[in-house]
């Protein structure tokens, strides 16, 4: 949505990358769909009176998409080669019935329609003509030997046998086509690997629109953050939960987060149950959670285990805890300032010094130490009902329900006028920036951006916000 028309053209023609949530599986569904479209146009362009170049353009589109998918690390080249190879073979070998609107006049298929049909339909028309001639011959014989009995008034008991089913053929022309397309597949794979080697470290691209509005974000100095408990600025613990199922995507996000915003938090965990350092933490957390074999496929159960891990150590060492998925980018300096401001605001309003505070939105949620204790208490079931088994993927709504069972209400981040003023928000400016939406400018001291569709965007976001040099 944030790309201009020129940027869309650049992405389609000249920039070898793709954004999205493809999984690294055998084989690529995207390539199968494009291959089917190309086969359909290639076989039927004459029938629909189209142009031959359109069929070749569809094959070029398939080749171009293969480059982009391989280069983006969303699939390995074998996923594409096997997908195209299997699709082409199935298309050629499986005999699928075709329904045609064929005109019939006096027992004959209309020659005008037959001329536009492929070879197999012409053979069906020849069978129809042969049947018609056989019926005419029987009619003449009956009139000659049947003492004037006319078949027009007496139904015949003889019927032409149905034509035998046609066995799919695989002749020289088909073998040549196989060699030709396999050559294109090999060329695609070779060039795709070449792109990976030559441009493995290429980042981005952010749209010009997103780059400009992220460049408007400024950083609060570390000492500007209000102190918590009269001692120091809030200590911020950041938790990033992987959602991608692709190993390469998870590794890419882990590397990008560790090299960009994650290093600016006081504490960091990247929750990926397939990582060797997380496996023992997940197993230890499972002791206090319901046993469920599907927990790795359910965000709520994974979030519960992540919270149990935090309960065992980080809960006592940090003041605020922010939870995002792998598409989030926390501006730690500004988030730390906002957290300290909310703590001071609560204390100045006559509330208890350890008043529970939590905020949330489409980006995730954040809680202070007091709210975390309430949330963990809700998970234990000592308060009112907090869901323990698999639930919907809307984790923020479930966290809201659990905290509500402990009489904790959310702090409305974006409507807190004092906080917005402190963070330099003009009217309708955003504290959290959705990079897939073109609506709204960020506050001067925006606290995070989210919906980052690729690990490489992290480096562009880092460069836009922190402005190196």
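-> sequence recovered:
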């Amino acid at each position: 949505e944030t790309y201009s028309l020129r940027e869309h053209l650049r992405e389609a023609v000249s920039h070898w990358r793709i954004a999205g949530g493809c999984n690294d599986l055998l084989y690529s569904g995207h390539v199968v769909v494009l291959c089917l479209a190309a086969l359909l146009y290639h076989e039927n362009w004459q029938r629909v009176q189209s142009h031959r170049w359109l069929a070749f353009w569809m094959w070029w589109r398939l080749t171009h998409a293969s480059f982009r998918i391989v280069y983006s690390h969303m699939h390995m080249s074998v996923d594409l080669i096997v997908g195209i190879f299997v699709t082409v073979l199935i298309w050629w070998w499986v005999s699928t019935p075709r329904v045609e609107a064929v005109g019939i006049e006096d027992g004959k298929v209309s020659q005008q329609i037959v001329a536009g049909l492929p070879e197999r339909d012409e053979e069906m028309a020849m069978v129809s003509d042969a049947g018609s001639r056989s019926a005419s011959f029987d009619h003449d014989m009956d009139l000659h030997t049947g003492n004037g009995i006319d078949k027009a008034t007496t139904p015949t008991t003889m019927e032409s046998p149905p034509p035998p089913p046609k066995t799919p053929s695989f002749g020289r022309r088909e073998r040549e086509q196989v060699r030709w397309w396999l050559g294109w597949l090999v060329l695609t794979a070779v060039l795709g690997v070449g792109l990976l080697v030559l441009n493995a470290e290429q980042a981005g691209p952010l749209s010009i629109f997103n780059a400009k509005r992220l460049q408007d974000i400024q950083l609060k100095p570390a000492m500007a953050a209000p102190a918590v408990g009269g001692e120091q600025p809030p200590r911020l613990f950041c938790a990033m939960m992987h959602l991608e199922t692709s190993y390469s995507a998870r590794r890419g996000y882990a590397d990008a987060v560790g090299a960009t915003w994650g290093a600016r938090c006081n504490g960091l965990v990247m929750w990926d149950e397939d990582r060797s350092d997380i496996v023992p933490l997940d197993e230890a957390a499972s002791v206090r959670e319901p046993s469920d074999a599907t927990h790795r496929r359910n965000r709520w159960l994974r979030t519960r285990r992540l919270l149990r891990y935090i309960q065992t150590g980080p809960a006592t060492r940090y003041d605020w805890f922010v939870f995002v998925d792998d598409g989030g980018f926390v501006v730690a300096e500004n988030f730390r300032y906002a957290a300290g401001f909310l703590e001071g605001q609560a204390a100045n309003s006559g509330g208890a010094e350890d008043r529970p505070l939590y905020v949330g939105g489409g980006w995730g949620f954040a809680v202070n130490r007091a709210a975390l204790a309430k949330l963990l208490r809700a998970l234990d079931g000592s308060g009112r009902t907090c869901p323990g088994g698999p639930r919907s993927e809307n984790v923020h709504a479930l966290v809201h329900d659990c905290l509500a069972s402990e009489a904790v209400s959310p702090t409305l981040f974006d409507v807190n006028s004092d906080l917005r003023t402190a963070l330099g928000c003009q009217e309708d400016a955003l504290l959290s920036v959705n990079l897939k939406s073109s609506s709204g400018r960020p506050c001067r001291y925006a606290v995070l951006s989210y919906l980052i569709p690729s690990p490489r965007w992290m480096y562009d976001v880092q460069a836009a916000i922190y402005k190196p040099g």
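The first strand starts at residue 104 and ends at 105.
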